Amino acid sequence: MYDNRDCWWCNNYEMVLYGARCVNRLVYRDAYTYVIVPLESHVRHHLLVVLREHRDTLIDCDEKHLRHIGATVAKTCKVLRSTGYDRVYAGCYSDDRHVHYHLIPFIKAADKPYDGYAMHRLAVKERLSAAHPFCGMTDLEKLARLDEIGIVVADIRGAWPTGG
Known about the structure:
By secondary structure, the protein is α+β, with helices and mostly antiparallel strands. It has helices at about 10, 65-80, 110, 120-130, 140-160; strands spanning about 15-20, 20-25, 25-30, 35, 45-50, 85-95, 100-105. The protein has one domain (about 5-160): 2-Layer Sandwich (HIT family, subunit A), CATH 3.30.428.10.
Protein backbone atom coordinates (compact mmCIF):
# COMPACT_ATOMS: atom_id res chain seq x y z
CA MET A 1 0.00 0.00 0.00
CA TYR A 2 1.27 3.46 -0.91
CA ASP A 3 1.43 5.99 1.96
CA ASN A 4 -0.08 9.34 0.88
CA ARG A 5 1.69 11.11 3.73
CA ASP A 6 4.97 10.66 1.85
CA CYS A 7 3.60 11.75 -1.52
CA TRP A 8 4.64 15.19 -2.77
CA TRP A 9 1.90 15.19 -5.41
CA CYS A 10 -0.75 14.59 -2.74
CA ASN A 11 0.57 17.05 -0.17
CA ASN A 12 2.55 19.87 -1.78
CA TYR A 13 1.00 20.60 -5.15
CA GLU A 14 -1.11 23.63 -4.27
CA MET A 15 1.24 26.22 -2.83
CA VAL A 16 4.69 27.41 -3.88
CA LEU A 17 6.77 28.79 -1.03
CA TYR A 18 9.91 30.81 -1.45
CA GLY A 19 11.25 32.86 1.41
CA ALA A 20 8.40 35.00 2.66
CA ARG A 21 6.42 34.59 -0.59
CA CYS A 22 3.63 32.08 -0.98
CA VAL A 23 1.72 31.65 -4.25
CA ASN A 24 -1.25 29.39 -4.86
CA ARG A 25 -0.81 27.59 -8.18
CA LEU A 26 -4.05 25.59 -8.08
CA VAL A 27 -6.42 26.37 -10.94
CA TYR A 28 -9.07 23.67 -10.48
CA ARG A 29 -9.73 20.67 -8.27
CA ASP A 30 -12.43 18.02 -8.07
CA ALA A 31 -12.62 14.65 -6.33
CA TYR A 32 -10.55 12.93 -9.05
CA THR A 33 -8.17 15.46 -10.59
CA TYR A 34 -6.53 18.82 -10.16
CA VAL A 35 -5.04 21.42 -12.49
CA ILE A 36 -1.94 23.38 -11.51
CA VAL A 37 0.61 25.73 -13.05
CA PRO A 38 4.04 24.01 -13.09
CA LEU A 39 7.01 25.50 -11.27
CA GLU A 40 9.01 25.54 -14.49
CA SER A 41 7.56 26.48 -17.84
CA HIS A 42 8.66 28.05 -21.07
CA VAL A 43 5.11 28.56 -22.32
CA ARG A 44 2.88 31.10 -20.59
CA HIS A 45 -0.25 29.00 -19.92
CA HIS A 46 1.44 25.60 -19.59
CA LEU A 47 -0.75 23.55 -17.21
CA LEU A 48 -0.62 20.16 -15.52
CA VAL A 49 -3.76 18.01 -15.23
CA VAL A 50 -3.10 15.45 -12.50
CA LEU A 51 -4.97 12.29 -11.53
CA ARG A 52 -5.32 12.35 -7.74
CA GLU A 53 -5.46 8.58 -7.30
CA HIS A 54 -2.14 6.78 -7.38
CA ARG A 55 -1.40 4.87 -10.57
CA ASP A 56 2.10 3.94 -11.69
CA THR A 57 1.55 4.72 -15.37
CA LEU A 58 -1.20 5.40 -17.89
CA ILE A 59 -1.42 1.69 -18.64
CA ASP A 60 -2.46 1.11 -14.99
CA CYS A 61 -5.50 3.37 -15.32
CA ASP A 62 -8.92 1.84 -15.81
CA GLU A 63 -11.87 3.38 -17.66
CA LYS A 64 -12.95 5.36 -14.59
CA HIS A 65 -9.54 7.02 -14.21
CA LEU A 66 -9.30 7.77 -17.91
CA ARG A 67 -12.82 9.17 -17.98
CA HIS A 68 -12.09 11.55 -15.08
CA ILE A 69 -8.71 12.79 -16.26
CA GLY A 70 -10.04 13.02 -19.83
CA ALA A 71 -12.97 15.17 -18.68
CA THR A 72 -10.60 17.54 -16.89
CA VAL A 73 -8.26 17.71 -19.88
CA ALA A 74 -11.28 18.56 -22.08
CA LYS A 75 -12.45 21.32 -19.69
CA THR A 76 -8.95 22.74 -19.50
CA CYS A 77 -8.56 22.75 -23.30
CA LYS A 78 -11.90 24.54 -23.61
CA VAL A 79 -10.66 27.19 -21.19
CA LEU A 80 -7.37 27.55 -23.08
CA ARG A 81 -9.32 27.99 -26.33
CA SER A 82 -11.42 30.71 -24.70
CA THR A 83 -8.23 32.58 -23.78
CA GLY A 84 -7.11 32.69 -27.44
CA TYR A 85 -5.14 29.52 -28.10
CA ASP A 86 -6.00 27.37 -31.12
CA ARG A 87 -3.72 24.38 -30.39
CA VAL A 88 -2.77 22.36 -27.31
CA TYR A 89 -0.09 19.71 -27.30
CA ALA A 90 -0.32 17.17 -24.50
CA GLY A 91 2.23 14.80 -23.08
CA CYS A 92 1.24 12.16 -20.55
CA TYR A 93 3.74 11.41 -17.81
CA SER A 94 3.84 9.61 -14.47
CA ASP A 95 6.05 10.70 -11.61
CA ASP A 96 5.77 9.31 -8.10
CA ARG A 97 2.66 7.31 -9.02
CA HIS A 98 0.65 10.29 -10.33
CA VAL A 99 -0.41 10.16 -13.96
CA HIS A 100 -0.52 13.70 -15.32
CA TYR A 101 -0.79 15.55 -18.59
CA HIS A 102 1.34 18.53 -19.52
CA LEU A 103 -0.81 20.82 -21.66
CA ILE A 104 1.27 23.12 -23.86
CA PRO A 105 -0.98 25.70 -25.55
CA PHE A 106 0.02 27.78 -28.54
CA ILE A 107 -1.30 29.81 -31.44
CA LYS A 108 -0.35 27.98 -34.62
CA ALA A 109 0.12 30.99 -36.87
CA ALA A 110 2.29 32.85 -34.36
CA ASP A 111 4.12 30.10 -32.45
CA LYS A 112 4.45 27.13 -34.81
CA PRO A 113 3.49 27.83 -38.41
CA TYR A 114 4.64 24.38 -39.57
CA ASP A 115 2.85 21.02 -39.25
CA GLY A 116 4.06 17.97 -37.39
CA TYR A 117 6.83 17.37 -34.88
CA ALA A 118 4.52 17.50 -31.85
CA MET A 119 6.67 15.12 -29.80
CA HIS A 120 9.80 17.06 -30.71
CA ARG A 121 8.20 20.34 -29.62
CA LEU A 122 7.09 18.80 -26.30
CA ALA A 123 10.53 17.28 -25.75
CA VAL A 124 12.24 20.62 -26.37
CA LYS A 125 9.96 22.36 -23.86
CA GLU A 126 10.56 19.60 -21.31
CA ARG A 127 14.35 19.82 -21.80
CA LEU A 128 14.30 23.60 -21.36
CA SER A 129 12.31 23.29 -18.14
CA ALA A 130 14.47 20.45 -16.81
CA ALA A 131 17.65 22.38 -17.64
CA HIS A 132 16.47 25.39 -15.62
CA PRO A 133 14.53 24.06 -12.61
CA PHE A 134 13.00 26.34 -10.00
CA CYS A 135 15.53 25.17 -7.41
CA GLY A 136 18.36 26.29 -9.73
CA MET A 137 16.97 29.76 -10.46
CA THR A 138 18.45 32.93 -9.00
CA ASP A 139 16.48 34.74 -6.31
CA LEU A 140 15.23 37.29 -8.85
CA GLU A 141 14.23 34.53 -11.31
CA LYS A 142 12.31 32.72 -8.56
CA LEU A 143 10.42 35.86 -7.58
CA ALA A 144 9.62 36.59 -11.24
CA ARG A 145 8.40 32.99 -11.69
CA LEU A 146 6.15 33.30 -8.63
CA ASP A 147 4.69 36.49 -10.12
CA GLU A 148 4.11 34.69 -13.43
CA ILE A 149 2.43 31.73 -11.70
CA GLY A 150 0.05 34.14 -9.95
CA ILE A 151 -0.83 35.82 -13.26
CA VAL A 152 -1.45 32.50 -15.04
CA VAL A 153 -3.62 31.18 -12.19
CA ALA A 154 -5.71 34.38 -12.29
CA ASP A 155 -6.02 34.18 -16.11
CA ILE A 156 -7.17 30.56 -16.14
CA ARG A 157 -9.43 30.78 -13.08
CA GLY A 158 -11.04 33.85 -14.60
CA ALA A 159 -11.84 31.89 -17.76
CA TRP A 160 -12.93 28.69 -15.96
CA PRO A 161 -16.68 28.05 -16.21
CA THR A 162 -18.55 28.70 -12.99
CA GLY A 163 -19.64 25.60 -11.18
CA GLY A 164 -16.41 23.75 -12.11
